Each structure stands twice: as C-alpha cells, then as structure tokens.
Here is the input.
Amino acid sequence: MNALPCTIYVSFLGAVLAWAAGRLSAMAARWIALVTAITGLGLALHAASGFVSGPGLQTLVDSAWIPEVGVRYHLAADGISLTLIVLTGLAATAGILFSWNIEQRVGDFFALYLALIGGVYGVFLSADAFVFFVFYEIAIVPKYFLIANWGSTNREYGAMKLVLYSFAGSSLVLAGLLWAYAISPVHSFALSDLAAAATHFTVGQQIGIFAFVFFGFAVLAGLFPFHTWAPTGHVAAPTGASMLLAGVVMKLGAYGCLRVAMATFPAGLAFWQPTIAWLAIIGILYAGLIALVQDDFKFVIGYSSVSHMGFVLLGLAAANVQAISGAVLQMFSHGVIAGLLFAVVGRMVYERTHTRQLADLRTMPLHRLLPFAALTFVLAGMASMGMPGFSGFPAELAILIGTWKTSPLWATCAAAGVLVAAAFTLRVIHLSFFGTTDHSHSHVVAHTPHPMPRITWPERLGALLLVGATVFIGLKPDHLLAWITPALQSPIFQAMMHGGAQ
Amino acid sequence: MSSDFLPLARALMPEATLILGALIALAIDLIAGRNSTNEQRLRTAATLGSFAIVVALYHTLRNGALGPVYGGVFLFDRFAVATRIGVLVLAQLAIVLASGTSKVRNAAEYIAIMLLATSGLLVMAAAQQLLIAFLGLELASLSLYILAGFDKSRRESAEAGLKYFLLGAMSAAFLLFGFSLLYGLTGSIELSIIARQLASQPMTPLLVVALVMILVAFGFKTAAAPFHLWAPDVYQGAPAASAALIASASKLAGLTLFARLLWAGFWPAAGSAARMDILPGWVPVVAVIALASLLVGNIGALAQTNVRRLLAYSAIAHAGALLLGLLATRRAGPGPLFYYAATYGLATVGAFGVIGAIERQGRCEQISDLAGLHRRSPLLALCLFVFVLSLAGIPPLAGFFGKFGVFAAALELNGLGGYIGWLTMLAILLSAVALYYYLTMLKQALVLPPASDATPIKVSGEAAAALLLAAALLIVLGIFPSAVLRLI
Here is the structure.
C-alpha cells in the first residue's frame, strides 16, 4: 500500500527516460515505456493484494508543501482510488502495447504518454484539493500534443477542442475551490478540512461552489451538453491516446465529481441532483442514438463512450451506496472495454484497411481476414452491451438498481439506454466485421490486392490483458465491490448520501 | 532627517557597483575595443556587465533587510530586498541573452545602458520618498527608451524607441504633476508623513486628480489597459534583450514601487471594491484598470499573428492579474504579487531569449516562423515549451502558482461578496482563453514541420545556459514556491 505513490514517480521518471532514450533509439523508448507501465501496474496490484478496505482514506504521504497557503502534500487511498489505479495500470500497459507501431518521434510520444499517466495516478491518490488540481492539470496538456502530433482525422481541431474544453472545465474547478478556500475559516486545502468548513457555509454558497466544481469536472466526464469534445477528440487521437482518453481520462472527471464536488459540498448535491440525473439520462440516450447513425467506425465508439459515461454520472447522481458502487465499477468496466474497442478500431482495423467508413468495411469480409480482431471486437461489444459474464453487466445492473431506489423514473429512462447500446453495438459489429462480399456493391477495396498484415504479438497481448480483466470482473465483481462498498461507509460519504438523497 | 552617509553608502553598494561596471565596460571598450570585432566587444562588455551584476547581487544578499536608511528615504525591507534580487537575476539573464543573441553595434554602450537601467530599477525597489521614486523611475525609463531604439539597422526599433519615449515622457509628466499636487496637499514627500496627512483629510477633488495622475503613470509602467498602447509596438520593434528587460525586470520593479506608494503612502485614500457598495478611492480605479487589461489583453492576443505582439498582449493580460495581486497586497502581504511578477519575468525573459536566438539566424516575426522548431533546435523548443506553459499557468511550472496565489489572495478579501471577487472569477475563466493563444505558439513550434527553407539553429553556449537556467528555475520554483515566499 505504501508503495502506491511510487506509481506517480515511476511514471514521471519513465517519461524523462523515454524522452532521452528516444533521441538514441525508438526501440529503447518503447521498452522503457512498457517497463514503466508494467511497473506501475505491478505496484498497483501489489498494493491491491494486501489491501483491506475500510471506511475512509488511508494516508500514504502527508508532509507540508506550501505552508504559506496551507497546502500539504497529502496522498491517500481507499477502495475507490485503488480500483481506478489498477484500471490506470491496465489501460496504460495495454495502450503502450497498442502504440508499438508508432514510428515518428517515438521518444516524445512515450514521454508525453507517461507524463499523462503520472498525472492520472496523482489525481487518484490526492487527498488535498491543491495536489489534486495540480495533477489534474498535468494530465491535460500532454493530450494536446499526443493528438495534434500523432493523431489522424482533423487532429489539430480535435486536439484544440479537447484541450480547451478540459481547461475551461478545470478553470471552473479552480474558481470553485478557491472560492471555498477563501470563505473557509481554516487555511487549508485538505479535502477533509474543506468538507468540515463547508458545513458552515450558507446553502447558497454550497450550491454555487458545487456547481463550479461539479460541472467543471463533469466536462471531462462527458456530461451532456459538455460532451462534444469527446467524440471529435477520441476520433482524432492516435490509438494509444484514445484508449487512455476514453479509458482513464474521462474517469478523472467522474472521480473529481465524486471525491471533490459531491463529498465536500453535500448541500449542493441535494440541490443539483435532479439536474445532473436528467442531463446524464439525456446523455445516455442522445449519445446512444447518435452512435446508431454514424458512418465512421471510430465515431460510433466515441459516442458509445459518452453514453456509457452517462451511466457513471447517473449512478453518482442517484447518491446511494449501491448506485455509487455501480458507478465506480462502471468506471473500471468502461475503462477496460472502451480501451479494447478503440484498440480494435484504431489499431487492428484502421491500420490495416486504412478506412473507418462502415460502408467500405462492409464490403470486406473482415471476420475472415482478421479473425482475431473480429473475435476481440465481438467480446468487447458484448461486454459493452452489458451481457452477463462481462464487467459491464454487474456495473450497469448495480447502477440501475441503485437508481431505482432513488427514482424509478430515472432508472426506467436509463434502462432504455441499455437497449440503444445493444442496438448500436450489434449494428456496428454486423457492418464492420460481418459485412457481405456481395459483388453488386463492391468497391475497389473489396478485392484487397494485398493480404492484411498479421496481428502482431503486442496487439494480442494487449487484447488478452483487457479481455481477461473484463471477464474476470464480470465473473467476480465482488472482488472490486469489496473494495468500493466499504469505502463508501466513511463519514464523509455517508454525510453526502444523507444530505444528498431525498 | 539624520544624514549619516556611511549606512547609505553601504546600502547603495549594488547601485554603485553597477554604475562602476558600466563605466569600466565603456572605458575598456574605448581603449581595447578599437581593433576587435563587434562580437568580441559585445562579449567583453557582457562579461564585465555580468560580473558587475554578480557583485551587486553579493552586496544585496550581504546587506539583507537593513530597514530604513538615510532617515527613511530608502526602506530596505524584505519586499525591497526580494525585488532587488529578482531585478538583478532578470537583468543578468537579459545581459547573457544579449551577448548570446543580439547583433547590435556599439555593444559596450548597449551593455552599459542595461546596467544603468538596472541600477534605476534597484532604486525604485527601495524608494520610500516621492523624489527618490521619481529619480529611480526616470533613470530606468530613460535607459530603457534608448535600449528599445538601439538597433539602428531596423526601422521598427527606431519606431519602438520613439513611441516608448513619447508616451513614457508623457506618463512621467503625469506622475510628476500628481506628485506635486500631493506635496501641495500634504506638505511632504515622505510616504509615512503623506499617509498621516491623508488620513486626516477628506477625499477632495484635488486629491482625486493627484491620484488619477499617479495611476496613469502606473498603468503605463505596467502596460495595463487603457495605457497599454505602447507595449505591442515596443515589444515588436525593440531588440530581443531590451524587450526582455522592459517586460520583466522593469515590470517587477514598477509593481514594487507602486505597491509601496499606493499601500504605504496613499492607503487612507484606498477606498474599497471588496464589497458591493464601493468606497471611492484608488482601489476601485485599479480594479477597473485590471478588468480592462484582462479583457483587452486576452481578447487582443487572439487576433495576433506576430509572436512579439502576441507576447505583448499576453503581458497586458498578465498586468491585469498582477493588479489583482496588488489590490490584495494589504491583506495577504506582498508575497503573492512578488512571486507572480518575478516568475512571470523569468518566463518572459526566456521567451524573448528564444525569439532572439531564432532571430540570430533568420526571421522570427510571424508565429508561423516558429514552425518546426523541434527539428531546427530541440533545445529551444523544449525551453519555449516550458516558458509558454508557465505563462499559461500550467502546473507544476511557476506561472501556475503565481496565478493561484494571486487569485487566492484576491478572493480572500471578501469571497464573492464584492466586485473584486467576481473580477477574480473572470480572470480565472479567462485563463482558458489564454491557453488557446499560447497553444497556437506551441503548435507551430512542436507540432508542425519546418518550412522548406528553414535551417537548423545553432544556439551559442551562453544563451543555451541562460535559457536552461530560466527553465529550470521555473520548474523548481513552481514545485517549491515556498523558496520564494519565504524571502518576503
């Protein structure tokens, strides 16, 4: 457990080493990146193996940092952060495996990639709002360069849009946090101190601060109507980066909503709860319906991410133990599944067919040309639909049951989203992998003159890792729930649920 | 007034060293420089100048906070000492960059005038009396006018010098007029006596006129809107090292001087804008200037295609945030303001250093001239990355904590219970706008490929060292802000 902060330092160190190694040899940079990511995952799993979940955060590091403004370098973890740290380790490792074919400026790519990962680990471990915010912003800037340098379709536009949305969101968060800090009697940014001070704020102040902080984070979590950066950004990003963006970075937003906004300002949650829930439901349905009519393979996955993140936000808004447990489980589940889907689309299929248009893919019998990709995508698609046996099922079920307890109407509306998800997933599986080779529609591409390159070992390994994770959690969700649920018994979360739920 | 000259001489050793250094640089150039190339002369003068600054820095550190000197004409408190250290470090960087990047003729004069400007800035940092304040300001300003127009081979430089001089002279006239009215009202040029006198006086129209005139000069010095019009032209036309000095050290010393004048001298006339009912005084006026600067700077920068003009508009936007820090100084102490101004100066010196290094071998006017910098010179690209992101306020670079500290201090005045709180909120949200134009610079430098005729850039050793030092300072001070805050 006490080695967890090393995930942060190892990642930043790996970033510097990868950058330096990239000047000499591309292969060295790749291996350094992979070793760094595996070390991070190993540290996370090692911490997890001896972890006994309990209510409240377990402090890992706590030392004075900037005493002049009352900032402490305070890192701590509970079951929720541990879940997400394991997810980060998985997604980072798989993302590097799927980025093995990056040839241009390899050192720079992996340096930015690992810097982003380091920021993400830092966010999940922070117990001080200032530290949280610093790591949160460290995770923003690398995204721009990852997309703008190594991306595809419309990459400069997508990168700028994504970064400006993220940064505007983080400005809102900063504004809210500074406001809370300024009116709190204690000179401290510790989340527990802020929560204690918040009980003395007027309801109006709590509502205002909550709005700044929650919606600032929700931008990154893809809450409707602030989600528009997500599809364009995901589509423009290189495969490894879209796996991280959808897999981990969107979770930063949701985690911030839970840990900072909701837990600290419960009276604000009580006021905004219906608004958030309805926005989340609109997001689930709207993004799902848009995904149903996309022509571009990657856009389907991009919108499906927004739709699935809607479930996370709905679970958070329902504000009871079961729904929030489900939301955290869904964060893990979606992180794995979205990574897998983007890997198949961006790496396995696009790099070989050079098209993402469903109309073109339809004319290729991809299930015969790329059987491994087809198998992986079908598995990921089933997980994404929420089929039993995969991690999506217990997560969405827990969210829907939990939401039902707060409001049956919300749960019913959201359940319709599950059907929409099944529809767009089946449609895209059908069109992309099991299209017809009917020669009446055939294009030039139909008779692909060159055989497709074989699926490489890093791809197989990465896919295996992620499929293994989703099946494992699908069969044994208790493994994660045993971490998450006790963490929600902490006094801060209990106060949130009693102040928040009607 | 007890006139004991020995402590005075000791306290002003740094200034004396700088002036002596300037004279020696000129003399050596006159004697030995006849037969050497321009580059050698520049290098000799810069070495002497650097040495003078190091000695001045040593004296500053050894003297420490002496307190009031020469009957309170100077006040060497921790704020003044920190500012003097900051000014010296920034001037040192500018001089090293000048020797590494510039192509000016009459190199010894250039360095000597930079030293004179620096000594003026040092005086400003410690002045506790209107006359000394004005003297320091004018010594610095007159030197800076010359520095702006020093590049005789470019028309833009002449334009910059002339514009800076005309507007600067006008603002000096305003300042002097304001000071004289104040003297008439209070009968003294000592800040402590002025404060005592003002405390017993109502807000008369004459006092309002005096304060407004002083604020005009202040706005000019810090490039705050609506007195910012000189900044884009001067930043664009002046030699890179001059622009670096104008944008960094001069701003830092100016802010220290005016923070002292306004809070130590004119606090009885401060008024307040921290609540919804405004008390008349200079605080609401400064708040309006801050608002105008934030809007003009951030929105104006969006439309720029020239790198230096972009930096100028970003400087205007930063001036707005710095003024917020000034307003919070009474409550939060000068720490946040100083930290912001000093680290902003570091990042700006660095950015102008990168521009200067590129210009040495080609053009660097349009933002698109930065294209492909990562291939032309990875070192410059890396340094520019750090400087620009620090200006944008991205952690863990120093620019982030600068903004953070100032905004926190401004909000602590009265939360969102008054206009300053809302102004701070606006400033925080505008930083997202600012990120856009900073990223357009970085996009050219780090993402796009170089133009077809672009060549690799060779960076001289001293320029590389100065840039790396500035970048390293921004990172270290950003991670450990207490190192600076403890100085104050």
Q: What stands out?
A: Chain A has a mean pLDDT of 87. The first strand of chain A starts at residue 58 and ends at 66. The CA atoms of residues 33 and 110 of chain A lie 6 Å apart. The beta strands of chain A are 58-66, 71-77.
